[in-house]
Design a protein that fits this description.
Blueprint: E1 2-8, E2 15-20, E3 31-36, E4 39-46, H1 48-51, E5 66-67, H2 75-87, H3 92-99, E6 111-117, H4 127-135, H5 143-150, H6 154-162, E7 166-172, H7 191-206, E8 210-216, H8 222-235, E9 239-243, H9 250-261, E10 266-268, H10 274-286, E11 291-294, E12 306-312, H11 329-340, E13 343-348, H12 353-360, E14 365-369, E15 380-385, H13 399-411, E16 414-418, E17 427-430, E18 447-449, E19 454-456, E20 463-465, E21 479-482, H14 486-496, E22 502-505, H15 513-524, E23 530-533, E24 546-551, H16 565-577, E25 588-593, H17 599-606, H18 609-623, E26 629-638, H19 641-653, E27 661-674, E28 677-687, H20 692-700, E29 710-715
Parallel strand pairs: 8-13, 8-14, 9-11, 9-12, 10-11, 12-13, 15-25, 16-23, 16-24, 22-23, 24-25
Antiparallel strand pairs: 1-2, 1-4, 3-4, 3-5, 6-7, 17-21, 18-19, 19-20, 26-28, 26-29, 27-28
Helix pairs in contact: 2-3, 2-11, 4-5, 5-6, 7-8, 16-17, 17-18
The chain binds adenosine-5'-diphosphate (ADP) and zinc ion.
Zinc ion binds next to loops.
Length: 721
């Protein structure tokens, strides 16, 4: 009799043993369906000795129900899943689930049915149907997806199928992707670019694990360099994974990729419709997907022949996932490359301190591109001391910045104003009684959005219409916005320069690939004079006519003072500054601040990047902070305040006492209430040599908490709220 151990997709159960029925063939990595009580579960056959769990007597084993028609997960991916679960103290089932990104794809290929408008004239138009007709023009997807898109019920759409307004379309899930051509449009590289490209190409051809840090200033043409490595992988028939920090950046990337290789790459992100997800997943598993571009969730997919991984904008904080499995895709990408025996390139103009440190230590090979491509100069950076140069009352732009904006408008050049705050104003209060609008579910103010006329919580999504009187004292017309968001800055620009064409660029306005394309085209065709944007617009874009960048409030990111506040501020401002002067005309950057002597601001002004990294490195070393020490956070939460407090106290009370590990807290989290859960935090500060994960596991696993309590472990935390 053949018995197997399964990793079942249930975080609480983990490993279970089964019998393989006669005639079924499975091996480690096979994806199967197994009985569990009266239900059925997905599972992956695993090497028993690697999973733990207790062996059940042969006689008690139940047989597997079905082996699914997909290739087994290969050993390197199984090792990656184990590593990730182990390092981030996460349930291995939760990590494995990320590899099977599309559960529907497991059932096999073939066809699926989508629906689209027929174009027929409706005879009887209910309001719901009118909404659907309007919203679904040009769309094709499943009934459920269309219903979500249109904001109507599935029943309404089924009715429309019945009356011939919508028609079914058979979609082939296995239709091939067009073939990318390595030599479609190879560029002439500069000498620096050529040297970088040769190093990457050699690594791809040799195969084997080799991590690179591509450290190139903004506009140096990093993309062109790593495209050469992509070309080399294509020529060898290997697959390439390119990770980008945000979906908003993919549109831009797609265009450049298509220029270079003749066809778009295969996309992977959370808002793909289900048929595209199934198609992409199957092509990834079969090896037919040559180049996959995606957000961090693309990292764990079962590539058949992975030959190269690229992490672009590798310093970006959004590579860190902050719920569920709290992993850092940048770091796991390097580990995956190691298990797959493939090169990995981390590309950035402002590498994370951790990456710089690893390059210095010789772990990563550093490739530098110190100059912009085509002889463009880096922009001149100047500080505007807001204490000396005050904006007018009720305004946020200093006179000097206003003069420069005017100058660019007269010359027909573009400007970009950066403020990392969505909406109109971060706080709204009642002039009469002082009432402040606060989120009922979070420790946060509601942010006014004038474009949508709502007050919104940026943490949980809670929204209310802006009321016309104070909910506390009932006084009409007494609400005042406090502080600026991008919408308010845009208003200010429009008041100063009524003829200027102003675009607000945030995740609220660029919330679909179509909107991103519209924006890029409008900016390229000079239909926009002033862009007012959040961090979304700081990277990736290349607008040759953009010659002025104004940083509205450089001090914003330094508030709160978490571990990476200085580094993050440096990166954000250096990146946004990098949008200026990328074409023939030189760029200028004005940074508004009240702390011109703060080390970050001073380093930006003097362009002394090395000095900044050195100072930051020194202070982290002194504090025993990462990368010199190991940090971990534990977040205890519950919907019940007393229960959360009690659980945190119980956890704190059993803390281990070890010489190389300090455990701080528990203390109420800065966001003491988040999405309706009360939160407490503990911070673990350990020497590099300490086995933090083992310490945490041995500490937490024997403890029992009420079912409403959640204990989240965050290794190498980026968020401290
Ligand atoms: P980075 O990503 O380093 O900021 P980009 O890759 O965006 O820089 O390159 C800046 C601009 O220069 C882009 O428009 C790019 O197409 C162009 N460019 C870079 N290298 C070359 C090259 N070798 N030939 C032609 N254009 C190039
Ligand atoms: Zn909220």
């Amino acid at each position: 009799m053949q018995r197997v151990r399964l990793l079942v997709f249930n975080a609480a159960l983990g490993a279970l043993d089964y019998r393989v029925p006669d005639g079924m063939a499975v091996e480690p990595g096979s994806v199967v369906i197994a009985p569990l009580g009266p239900r059925q579960v997905f599972g992956i056959v695993w090497e028993p000795e690697r999973l733990g769990g207790t062996a059940v007597a042969d006689a008690k084993l139940r047989p597997l129900l079905e082996a699914l028609p997909v290739a087994p997960l290969a050993a390197p991916l199984r090792r990656l899943i184990e590593w990730t679960a182990d390092y981030y103290c996460a349930p291995i089932a939760s990590v494995a689930r990320m590899a099977l990104g599309s559960m529907a794809a497991l059932k096999g290929g073939g066809t699926t049915t989508e629906y689209r408008l027929t174009g027929a004239e409706p005879t009887r138009l209910t309001p719901q149907r009118a909404v659907a007709l309007e919203a679904l023009a040009g769309e094709q997807a499943t009934i459920r997806e269309l219903a979500e898109k249109a904001g109507v019920s599935e029943g309404v759409l089924r009715g429309m199928v019945g009356t011939g307004l919508l028609e079914p379309v058979a979609v082939d899930l296995d239709r091939p992707y067009p073939t990318a051509r390595a030599d479609f449009a190879a560029p002439d590289l500069s000498a620096d670019q050529q040297a970088a490209a040769e190093a990457f190409v050699a690594a791809v051809r040799e195969g084997g694990f080799q991590p690179f840090l591509l450290d190139g200033v903004t506009g140096s043409g990093k993309t062109e360099c790593y495209f050469e490595a992509v070309a080399a992988a294509l020529a060898l028939g290997k697959q390439v994974l390119v990770l980008l920090p945000e979906i908003a950046l993919t549109e831009n990337f797609l265009r450049r990729f298509e220029h270079r290789f003749g066809v778009p790459p295969v996309l992977w992100h959370s808002s793909l419709k289900s048929s595209e997800r199934r198609r992409a997943w199957r092509a990834i598993v079969s090896g037919d997907a040559q180049v996959v571009v995606g957000a961090r969730s693309a990292l764990f997919l079962p590539y058949a022949r992975l030959g190269l991984i690229i992490v672009d904008e590798a310093h970006e904080v959004s590579f860190k996932q902050d719920d569920g499995v709290r992993y850092n895709a940048r770091d796991v990408a390097v580990i995956r490359a190691r298990f797959e025996a493939a090169p990995v390139i981390l590309a950035s103009a402002t590498p994370a301190l951790e990456s710089m440190q690893l390059a210095e230590a010789g772990v990563y090979r550093k490739i530098a591109l110190p100059a912009r491509f085509g002889g463009a100069e880096l922009p001149a950076i100047e500080i505007l001391d807001l204490r000396a140069e005050q904006p007018e009352r009720g305004r946020w732009l200093a006179p000097r910045l206003v003069r420069e904006l005017k100058d660019r408008l007269l010359k027909g050049e573009q400007s970009l104003l950066f403020l990392n705050r969505r909406g109109y104003a971060p706080l709204t209060l009642c002039r009469h009684c002082g009432y402040r609008f606060q989120c009922p579910n979070c420790t946060a103010w509601l942010v006014e959005h004038r474009l949508s006329r709502r007050l919104a919580c940026h943490h949980c999504g809670h929204e209310v219409p802006v009321p016309d009187k104070c909910p506390e004292c009932g006084t009409p017309d007494c609400l005042v916005p406090c502080g600026p968001g991008v919408e308010r800055i845009a208003d200010e620009v429009s008041e100063l320069f009524p003829e200027a064409r102003v675009a607000v660029v945030t995740s609220d306005t660029l919330n679909s690939p179509g909107k991103v394309m519209e924006f890029v085209e409008a900016a390229e065709n000079k239909l926009i004079d002033v862009i007012v944007g959040t961090q979304l617009v700081t990277k990736g874009y290349h607008f040759p006519e953009l010659t002025l960048v104004g940083v509205v409030d450089a001090d914003l990111g330094l508030e709160g003072g978490d571990l990476r506040a200085g580094e993050r501020t440096y990166q954000q401002i250096a990146q946004v500054a990098g949008r200026a002067g990328r074409g023939e005309k030189p760029g200028e950057v004005l940074i508004q601040t009240r702390h011109p002597t703060a080390p970050v601001i001073a380093a930006l002004a003097s362009g002394d990047r090395d000095a900044f990294y050195e100072a930051e490195t020194q202070s982290r070393r002194d504090a025993g902070a990462p990368p010199f020490g190991r940090w971990a956070a534990i977040i205890v939460s519950s919907e019940d305040e007393a229960e959360a407090r009690e659980a945190a106290r119980a956890l704190g009370g059993t803390r281990p006492n070890l010489p190389d590990v300090a455990i701080l807290g528990p203390a109420p989290a800065p966001m003491a209430l988040l999405r309706g859960r009360y939160r407490y935090r503990l911070l673990i500060i350990a020497r590099r040599s300490a086995e933090v994960q083992r310490v945490i596991r041995e500490w937490i696993s024997p403890l029992r908490f009420p079912p409403g309590v959640r204990i989240g472990v965050d290794i190498d935390p980026y968020s401290f709220v």
